[in-house]
Amino acid sequence: MDLTPASSPTPRSLWKIIGAASAGTLIEWYDFYVFGSLATILSGHFFPPGNPTAAFLNTLAVFATGFIARPFGALVFGRLGDLVGRKYTFMVTLLLMGGSTFALGLLPTYKQVGMFAPVLLVLLRLVQGLSVGGEYGGAATYVAEHTPDHRRGFYTGFLQTTATFGLIASLLVILGLRSLLGKAAFEAWGWRLPFLVSILLVMLSYYIRRRMAESPLFAQAKAAGKLSANPLRESFADPKNLKLVLLALFGFVAGHAVVWYTGHFYALFFLQRIAQVDFVAANTLVMWALVATTPLYVFFGWLSDRIGRKPVVLTGCFLGATCLYPIYLGLMHYAAPLNRPALFGLVLLQMSFGTMTYGPMAAWLVELFPTRIRYTALSLPYHLGIGVLGGLTPLIASSLVAQTGNNFAGLAYPIAIAAASFLTGLFLLPEPRGARLDA
């Protein structure tokens, strides 16, 4: 049974569309982020012993390779999505992600196979990056092409929650297994289980996505013979479209990326490695902050329908640029002695900046580009910004701290990118709120 009617969807069918698309995206984010959530443990299994700082930085570098691969996945799968269709393309990405994540749980360690262990780890992380590079653009395009113009920010805001829910799911599984198995067993072999169990979720999501029909706007364009013969060339060789791609990248995606990854990942690493907060306490604080901020994605998506995408997103970039340094001073201050309410409030505050930048993002990106090249054109700036500039945030920030000995030196990177993005977006970006996607 199709979950997508050929004509404009009813409210009931629209919620089914959002639920079906979001389920798969959530699972892909779980698969992608469980690696980051386990970084401190994986570093001891896949790199030579004796230098824990170097091993941790190497693990962050492997974590970053997945982000670096995302723009290449955006090009490959974005092109397929504009040529073949939204639905089938992100079914392929789901299977690639699920297979590579399951294989991560079976990898031999450094103690077993030496340097082959990190090599295999990098290869699978690259496959993860390629697949998630094609996932988000397809899901965002698919959902947005079904929504009414005046409520697009609200409806796509639900899709934006999937990244957070994926991270929450990874933390819940990790903390639950660690509690069940005990610290010693979990760190010895139990860390494999979060990777292995994901295959069950992937199979369920694949079944759901098989029942989805194609996007009506794509189907109409295909029937009318209006699909692009070369989405890559049309997206990046046409000066008008290339300008929009670059403005999207530097005007708001880059700023969002560093604000979001600082609040959601670097905060976790900072609490554990610099502020010396216990593993369980740090992960629990971050998990509950994630839960508390999740509704804000929908709220800020809704708000962008009322006042525009630009003021909401750029306010988040501005707050990130101006508030991160005092927030991290507070994290260090309240870590010893441990003040859980204060740490929770500070983590929640910085995460809320990320919800401001991310809630309206799918709607804004979709509205910038025409149907014939939408999957390709929005995927590249999104994954260059999120995957490279944002995904490298934990590695760059941790490296700056290690090189300078200054616990707060790592904040220079996200603050600079967020400030530059705010200024670029403020003066150069258009406001496409409510644009007709079939125009």
Give the SSE map.
Layout: H1 11-37, H2 39-46, H3 52-83, H4 86-104, H5 110-113, H6 116-144, H7 152-181, H8 183-188, H9 193-196, H10 198-210, H11 216-223, H12 231-236, H13 239-274, H14 279-307, H15 309-335, H16 340-358, H17 361-368, H18 374-390, H19 393-404, H20 412-428
Describe the structure using short key phrases.
439 residues, mainly alpha, Growth Hormone, Chain: A, 20 helices, disordered N terminus
- Fraction of helical residues: over 70%
Radius of gyration: 21 Å
So how many helices?
Answer: 20
Q: What is the CATH architecture descriptor?
A: Up-down Bundle
CATH superfamily: MFS general substrate transporter like domains
Query: What about the largest sheet?
Result: none
Termini gap:
30 Å
Uncertain runs are: 1-7
